[in-house]
Amino acid sequence: MAGVRWHQTDLLDRAAAARLIREVRPSHLLHLAWTVEHGAFWTSPDNLDWLAASLHLLRCFNEAGGSRFLGIGSGAEYGDCAGDCDEAETPLCPASLYAAAKSSLWSTGRHYAQTVELGFVWCRLFQVFGVGEPQTRLIPSVIGALLRGEVVAVGSGTAVRDFVDVRDAAAALKVILLSDFSGALNVGTGRGRSIAEVCESIGRQLGRPELIGIGRRQDRPGEPGRIVADVARLRSVNGELPATTLEDSIADVIGWLSEGKVTAQRGQARP
Amino acid sequence: MAGVRWHQTDLLDRAAAARLIREVRPSHLLHLAWTVEHGAFWTSPDNLDWLAASLHLLRCFNEAGGSRFLGIGSGAEYGDCAGDCDEAETPLCPASLYAAAKSSLWSTGRHYAQTVELGFVWCRLFQVFGVGEPQTRLIPSVIGALLRGEVVAVGSGTAVRDFVDVRDAAAALKVILLSDFSGALNVGTGRGRSIAEVCESIGRQLGRPELIGIGRRQDRPGEPGRIVADVARLRSVNGELPATTLEDSIADVIGWLSEGKVTAQRGQARP
Predict the structure, then answer these.
(1) Alpha carbon of A7 to those of A19, A21, A26: distances in Å?
(2) For B165, which of A88, A192, B244, B269 could close a Cys bridge (C-beta 3.0–4.6 Å)?
(3) Do A55 and B49 touch (CB under 8 A)?
(4) Cα torsion for B225, B99, B124, B47, to the nearest 10°?
């Protein structure tokens, strides 16, 4: 990519991470790395190491003269939430090790940033998905099964999430990083959709609704019922909200996974 | 001490800490270390390193077959609290980097412990003081000044804290470590005393009440008004509450600092 210089390091290697930050002396840091292996990351002990490595990175960044750090949190930090999750009002009740480690980085990170007068913004991503994501994750795995003509075993499908297209999320992160906002900021659409609705939308778009097997699998124990973003703060900082509809995003993932095979079907299947 | 074997390591050196835990393979771990430099620890960036080192220690301990980890938290994790701080009901609103780092270790640590089925108890110490503590801390510094005949500049003195004798706290930690309780547990007396009351008690015991200069110094900005433990859970786990009265504890610190000089005065000065 023009104008981009790549550097590579292992953030879990404290000395190597410190060395890189001292060499590059970045003014802005967008910290996306974490343990993310699908299914395993909720309970992985590696969450402890990523929390520790992120604290170390934050301190190195500040001590090398950095001015603005953007960390990535998760809607899961809120836990189960009857209404929409509001950055200022909704208490954080993380229901998993992953969510607890993320909210710990937020809590300790923001107090550190206040102390040393560092710009610190914490973007809580909601249910990001889209072209290029690991095919073990919900939407690509359902699409993949349907493309192969297989029945998909889904849980109760009642959990409601705020699905946001990865391109919209990435565009928002760039705007937020370059803004002067400090604090926590939800990155979602403000619209809740149940897992069942999402699966059924995929079934419709691929013309195979009968392959969606709602209730054929156990839900993950302790999974929160509803996690949807309040997006007033995102609108004010980002200037707009994620605009891609769930149906368009799904259509693009279908196009990517089927390499053009279902393109003809897309227009017809969209609501 | 008979029956005690000492090992020494630097917990901030990850490899050294891991090596020691692998060699010793402890069944129980009481983790007291942290950055504690008086005055500085509230905002020290070393809080980040101690949080990271503690997460590392916790993981090493579990992976070496440990069964029970006792970590040390603080009443400061609750922040300002109108009523008594209850482990189950009172939200954590840490008002300092120190308190945020401690509550992060609690939050991430307990989720980790649940995941790996490790016994994890988190003792929130309230205002521990007593014989042997650094002489820069509140009670020894006030006593020291009065023994030298100097006026002590105190802030407004309105902050209310739950003062607990270090010997009572240590005895409770031992009982709790060997119990099978998991979760958060306040270690305090359940009695709130204002800083002014404590200073005036010292003044009375030393016969120099006129040297206590309430209002002669600024309060630390953002200092919570009231932090007092609800002790129902401590009573049920420990079987009893800290029994040494504030006045007796102060008398013992006076005895220690004056090397016997004020012993004669103690009986008379106590209420």
Answers:
(1) 12, 10, 12
(2) B244
(3) yes
(4) -150
- Shortest Cα distance, chain B CAs vs residue A30, angstroms: 19
Q: In this complex, which of B52, B96, B116 lies closest to A56 when CB atoms are compared?
A: B52
pTM, full prediction = 0.92
Cβ of B97 within 8 Å of Cβ of A115? The answer is yes
Q: What is the rounded radius of gyration, in angstroms, for the C-alpha atoms of chain B?
A: 20
Q: DSSP labels for B135-187?
A: TTSHHHHHHHHHHTTPPEE------EE-EEEHHHHHHHHHHHHHS---EEEEE
Asked if B111 lies within 8 A of A105 by C-beta distance, the reply is: no
Enumerate chain A positions whose Cβ falls within 8 A of a Cβ in B.
14, 43, 45, 47-49, 51-53, 55-56, 58-59, 62, 91, 94, 96-97, 99-101, 103-105, 107-108, 110-112, 114-116
Q: What is the ipTM of this complex?
A: 0.90
Helix, coil or strand: residue B112: helix
Q: Tell me which chain A residues have a C-beta less than 8 angstroms from the C-beta of B59.
A: 45, 48-49
- Between CA A103 and CA A134 the distance in angstroms is 24
pLDDT in tens, chain A (271 residues): 788 999 999 999 999 999 999 999 999 999 999 999 888 999 999 999 999 999 999 999 999 999 999 999 999 999 877 789 999 999 999 999 999 999 999 999 999 999 999 999 999 999 999 999 999 999 999 999 999 999 999 999 999 999 999 999 999 999 999 999 999 999 999 999 999 999 999 999 999 999 999 999 998 887 889 999 999 999 999 999 999 999 999 999 999 999 854 443 443 333 3
Residue type, B43: T
DSSP assignment of chain A equals -TT-------TTSHHHHHHHHHHH--SEEEE------TTTTTT-THHHHHHHHHHHHHHHHHHTT--EEEEEEEGGGG-S-SS-B-TTTSPP---SHHHHHHHHHHHHHHHHHHHHT-EEEEEEE-EEE-TTS-TTSHHHHHHHHHHTTPPEE------EE-EEEHHHHHHHHHHHHHS---EEEEES-S--EEHHHHHHHHHHHTT-GGGEETTSSPPPTT--SEE-B--HHHHHHHSS---S-HHHHHHHHHHHHHTTTTHHHHHHH--
